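Something for you to look into today, if you have time. I want to see for myself how the chain folds. Leave the record below and I will have a look.
***
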Amino acid sequence: MRVALPDSKVAAERRALRARLIAKRRQVNAHEREHAAGRIARNVDRAFHLRAGWRIAAYAALREELDSTPLITLAAERGCRIYLPRIDRRRRSRSMRFVAMRGAMRENRLGIAEPEVAESIGARWLDVVFLPLVGFDRHGLRLGTGGGFYDRAFAFRHTREMWRGPLLVGIAYAFQELKHIAAAPHDVRMDAVVTEEGVIRCTTG
């Protein structure tokens, strides 16, 4: 049985893990990144059978993140409605919403491409959400970049009762898997993670 760590210890442990995994991710060359992204899209296709009309949230990848292009192409081919996250442009805001992927794109303050003008949808009404991540474990815990945007967007999953909500699926290299991530109260757990090696169905911990 694991002993719960104080919040300060959890934060310190996560910073160390995040720095190590980001450094390792940056070592992936362009060919390896492209190959992994293609295999992940094929694994998604086999495991989740995306359907026409589904509301799918993906992400616009930064250079060091796994390329989301094959995954977005797959969703479009299956007739899905695709949305991308958009961070509130007010400097002090830490909220995020999901907007339709069409029209002009612009970079936000974090350097992430977002649709400039499009209708938005509430996070509750998405069918599947593909999330970028820095690290993960098999209990569904996700180590992100530290902004907390996804945890806030899907915080309703902590209190829902008898309500399905979207399926949260992490996208990662296999080497980003960790044996254990110390949980924090705000964490929203994923339902599955897809890597170039296959699909991991997460437990609730």
Notes: The mean pLDDT is 88. The helical segments are 7-26, 30-48, 69-77, 149-153.
